[in-house]
Design goal:
Helices cover about 35% and strands about 25% of the residues. It has about 130 residues and is an alpha+beta fold. It has a single domain, classed as Heat Shock Protein 90. A four-stranded antiparallel beta sheet has the order 1-2-4-3, covered by helices on one side. Helix 1 packs antiparallel against helix 2 and helix 2 runs antiparallel to helix 3. The longest helix has 22 residues. It is globular, with a radius of gyration of 15 Å.
């Protein structure tokens, strides 16, 4: 994350995205990255992740890719509804539910040896 944070902040600055939305984007990227390292790469790893941002009229699209084994975080095993007490929820999955709540669209594809996640992020605050 030490290398990723300045990249995300720079992309936000270049796109004129305000601080509040930039912090939300950082939260999303941190969740994806943590899941990649912890679950996909199984801990410390020199394996890469790839990220890109494509500005759009309403915000931008975040493209996030890793080379971990195939896993669709938004597929049929998407975390259960969380309207009940958090203490009664099973461990895991709440971060992905948070990610999904912060974006307008979430897509997953397996392209070659990569998991490819594309998140459409609506921007409410511009500088």
């Amino acid at each position: 994350m030490a290398e990723i944070r300045p990249f995300v902040e720079g992309a936000c600055t270049a796109a004129g995205i305000g601080r509040e939305d930039c912090l939300k984007l950082l939260l999303i990227v941190e969740e994806l990255f943590t899941n990649t390292v912890t679950h996909g790469y199984k801990g410390e790893s020199e394996s890469p992740v790839w990220m890109g941002f494509v500005p759009s009229e309403a915000g931008f699209v975040l493209s996030y890719q890793d080379a971990a084994p195939p896993h669709n975080p938004f597929g049929p095993s998407f975390p259960p509804e969380t309207s009940g007490l958090v203490a009664k929820q099973p461990v895991g999955g709440l971060g992905l539910r948070l990610v999904r709540s912060l974006v307008t669209d979430a897509r997953y594809d397996r392209e070659g040896e990569r998991n490819c996640i594309r998140l459409t992020f609506a921007v409410r605050s511009r500088r």
